[in-house]
Protein backbone atom coordinates (compact mmCIF):
# COMPACT_ATOMS: atom_id res chain seq x y z
CA UNK A 1 0.00 0.00 0.00
CA UNK A 2 1.44 3.33 -1.05
CA UNK A 3 0.76 6.18 1.37
CA UNK A 4 1.25 9.79 0.29
CA UNK A 5 1.60 12.52 2.91
CA UNK A 6 0.93 16.09 1.79
CA UNK A 7 -0.20 19.44 3.09
CA UNK A 8 -3.93 19.78 3.52
CA UNK A 9 -5.80 22.06 1.10
CA UNK A 10 -9.13 23.83 1.75
CA UNK A 11 -10.76 21.41 -0.70
CA UNK A 12 -9.85 18.61 1.74
CA UNK A 13 -11.68 20.08 4.74
CA UNK A 14 -14.88 18.03 4.41
CA UNK A 15 -13.01 14.75 3.90
CA UNK A 16 -10.72 15.54 6.85
CA UNK A 17 -13.76 16.30 9.03
CA UNK A 18 -15.17 12.84 8.24
CA UNK A 19 -11.81 11.08 8.79
CA UNK A 20 -11.41 12.67 12.21
CA UNK A 21 -15.03 11.94 13.17
CA UNK A 22 -14.72 8.26 12.16
CA UNK A 23 -11.33 7.89 13.80
CA UNK A 24 -12.53 9.00 17.24
CA UNK A 25 -16.05 7.54 17.08
CA UNK A 26 -15.29 4.56 19.32
CA UNK A 27 -12.53 6.19 21.37
CA UNK A 28 -13.56 6.11 25.03
CA UNK A 29 -11.16 8.92 26.06
CA UNK A 30 -12.57 11.30 23.45
CA UNK A 31 -15.24 13.95 23.70
CA UNK A 32 -15.91 13.25 19.98
CA UNK A 33 -15.41 16.93 19.16
CA UNK A 34 -11.91 16.75 17.61
CA UNK A 35 -13.19 17.56 14.12
CA UNK A 36 -14.76 20.79 15.43
CA UNK A 37 -11.52 21.70 17.22
CA UNK A 38 -9.65 21.40 13.92
CA UNK A 39 -12.20 23.69 12.23
CA UNK A 40 -11.72 26.31 14.97
CA UNK A 41 -7.92 26.10 14.92
CA UNK A 42 -7.82 26.61 11.15
CA UNK A 43 -9.41 30.04 11.75
CA UNK A 44 -7.03 31.04 14.56
CA UNK A 45 -3.59 32.59 14.87
CA UNK A 46 -2.32 29.19 16.06
CA UNK A 47 -2.89 27.55 12.68
CA UNK A 48 0.24 26.62 10.73
CA UNK A 49 -0.91 25.44 7.28
CA UNK A 50 2.36 23.59 6.63
CA UNK A 51 1.68 21.47 9.73
CA UNK A 52 -1.80 20.39 8.70
CA UNK A 53 -1.15 17.17 6.77
CA UNK A 54 -3.24 14.47 5.15
CA UNK A 55 -2.40 10.87 4.31
CA UNK A 56 -3.76 9.52 1.03
CA UNK A 57 -4.07 6.00 -0.30
CA UNK A 58 -5.24 5.74 -3.91
CA UNK A 59 -5.99 9.49 -3.84
CA UNK A 60 -8.42 9.02 -0.93
CA UNK A 61 -7.76 10.81 2.37
CA UNK A 62 -7.38 8.17 5.07
CA UNK A 63 -5.48 10.08 7.74
CA UNK A 64 -4.78 13.51 9.16
CA UNK A 65 -2.50 15.32 11.60
CA UNK A 66 -2.35 18.88 12.88
CA UNK A 67 0.32 20.67 14.87
CA UNK A 68 -0.66 24.16 16.03
CA UNK A 69 1.08 26.89 17.99
CA UNK A 70 0.95 27.09 21.77
CA UNK A 71 3.18 28.68 24.41
CA UNK A 72 4.78 27.53 27.62
CA UNK A 73 4.66 30.32 30.15
CA UNK A 74 6.15 31.03 33.56
CA UNK A 75 6.37 34.21 35.65
CA UNK A 76 9.15 35.64 33.49
CA UNK A 77 9.05 34.11 30.02
CA UNK A 78 6.98 32.67 27.21
CA UNK A 79 8.36 29.90 25.03
CA UNK A 80 6.92 28.84 21.67
CA UNK A 81 5.89 25.23 21.15
CA UNK A 82 3.42 23.12 19.18
CA UNK A 83 0.41 21.07 20.21
CA UNK A 84 -0.31 17.81 18.44
CA UNK A 85 -4.08 17.52 18.13
CA UNK A 86 -5.28 15.42 16.53
CA UNK A 87 -3.75 12.55 14.65
CA UNK A 88 -6.49 10.51 13.03
CA UNK A 89 -6.64 7.48 10.75
CA UNK A 90 -9.79 5.83 9.42
CA UNK A 91 -10.52 2.77 11.59
CA UNK A 92 -10.27 0.35 8.66
CA UNK A 93 -6.83 1.77 7.77
CA UNK A 94 -5.34 1.71 11.28
CA UNK A 95 -2.38 -0.56 12.10
CA UNK A 96 -0.82 0.02 8.67
CA UNK A 97 1.78 2.59 9.74
CA UNK A 98 -0.20 5.58 8.47
CA UNK A 99 -0.26 7.33 11.86
CA UNK A 100 3.50 6.78 12.15
CA UNK A 101 4.08 8.31 8.72
CA UNK A 102 1.91 11.30 9.60
CA UNK A 103 3.78 11.83 12.87
CA UNK A 104 7.20 11.56 11.27
CA UNK A 105 6.23 13.92 8.44
CA UNK A 106 4.78 16.46 10.87
CA UNK A 107 7.86 16.29 13.11
CA UNK A 108 10.19 16.72 10.11
CA UNK A 109 8.22 19.68 8.79
CA UNK A 110 8.02 21.32 12.24
CA UNK A 111 11.77 21.00 12.64
CA UNK A 112 12.28 22.46 9.16
CA UNK A 113 10.12 25.42 10.26
CA UNK A 114 12.43 25.77 13.30
CA UNK A 115 10.01 24.66 15.99
CA UNK A 116 11.71 22.82 18.83
CA UNK A 117 8.99 21.25 21.03
CA UNK A 118 5.75 19.34 20.50
CA UNK A 119 3.29 18.51 23.28
CA UNK A 120 0.47 16.01 23.18
CA UNK A 121 -2.25 14.73 25.45
CA UNK A 122 -2.42 11.14 24.32
CA UNK A 123 -1.94 7.43 24.84
CA UNK A 124 1.02 6.71 27.07
CA UNK A 125 1.77 3.50 25.16
CA UNK A 126 1.67 5.00 21.64
CA UNK A 127 3.58 8.27 21.70
CA UNK A 128 6.75 7.11 23.49
CA UNK A 129 7.53 5.15 20.29
CA UNK A 130 8.15 8.57 18.75
CA UNK A 131 10.34 9.80 21.61
CA UNK A 132 7.60 11.53 23.57
CA UNK A 133 8.03 11.47 27.31
CA UNK A 134 6.04 12.87 30.22
CA UNK A 135 6.21 16.67 30.12
CA UNK A 136 6.50 16.76 33.90
CA UNK A 137 10.03 15.34 33.42
CA UNK A 138 10.84 18.77 31.97
CA UNK A 139 8.87 20.74 34.58
CA UNK A 140 6.23 21.57 31.96
CA UNK A 141 2.65 21.26 33.14
CA UNK A 142 -0.78 21.11 31.58
CA UNK A 143 -3.18 23.94 32.43
CA UNK A 144 -5.79 21.42 33.55
CA UNK A 145 -5.99 18.18 35.51
CA UNK A 146 -4.69 15.29 33.45
CA UNK A 147 -2.80 12.09 34.25
CA UNK A 148 0.89 13.01 34.10
CA UNK A 149 1.68 9.94 31.98
CA UNK A 150 -0.66 11.18 29.22
CA UNK A 151 0.68 14.73 28.89
CA UNK A 152 3.87 14.30 26.88
CA UNK A 153 6.57 16.28 25.16
CA UNK A 154 8.93 15.62 22.26
CA UNK A 155 12.09 17.60 21.72
CA UNK A 156 12.60 18.15 18.00
CA UNK A 157 16.00 19.61 18.82
CA UNK A 158 18.19 17.91 21.46
CA UNK A 159 17.90 19.59 24.88
CA UNK A 160 15.33 22.09 23.56
CA UNK A 161 13.38 21.87 26.81
CA UNK A 162 16.41 21.92 29.07
CA UNK A 163 15.89 25.50 30.28
CA UNK A 164 12.14 25.75 29.74
CA UNK A 165 9.61 25.38 32.53
CA UNK A 166 6.08 26.51 33.11
CA UNK A 167 2.48 25.90 32.18
CA UNK A 168 1.20 25.32 28.67
CA UNK A 169 -1.11 28.02 27.35
CA UNK A 170 -3.48 26.86 24.63
CA UNK A 171 -5.27 29.24 22.26
CA UNK A 172 -8.88 29.91 23.23
CA UNK A 173 -10.05 27.70 20.35
CA UNK A 174 -9.04 24.69 22.45
CA UNK A 175 -11.41 25.69 25.26
CA UNK A 176 -14.68 26.27 23.43
TrEMBL record:
Q: Which principal EC class is assigned to this enzyme?
A: transferase
| One Pfam family recorded for the sequence | Acetyltransf_9
Q: What is its EC number?
A: 2.3.-.-
Keywords associated with the record: Acyltransferase, Transferase
Q: What residue ranges carry the coiled-coil annotation? A: none
Q: Which GO terms describe its molecular function?
A: acyltransferase activity
Q: Which InterPro entries match?
A: Acyl_CoA_acyltransferase, Bact_Acetyltransf, GNAT_dom
Please list the residue ranges annotated as the N-acetyltransferase domain: 3-157
User: Could you confirm whether the keyword Transferase appears in this record?
Assistant: yes
For this protein, the parts annotated as crossing the membrane are: none
Kindly give the Gene3D superfamilies that the UniProt entry links to this protein. Answer: 3.40.630.30
Family matches, as CDD domains? NAT_SF
Top-level taxon in the UniProt lineage: Bacteria
List, alphabetically, the PANTHER family matched.
ACETYLTRANSFERASE, AMINOALKYLPHOSPHONATE N-ACETYLTRANSFERASE-RELATED-RELATED
Question: By what name is this protein known?
Answer: GNAT family N-acetyltransferase
Q: Which organism is it from?
A: Zunongwangia endophytica
Q: What is the lineage of its organism?
A: Bacteria, Pseudomonadati, Bacteroidota, Flavobacteriia, Flavobacteriales
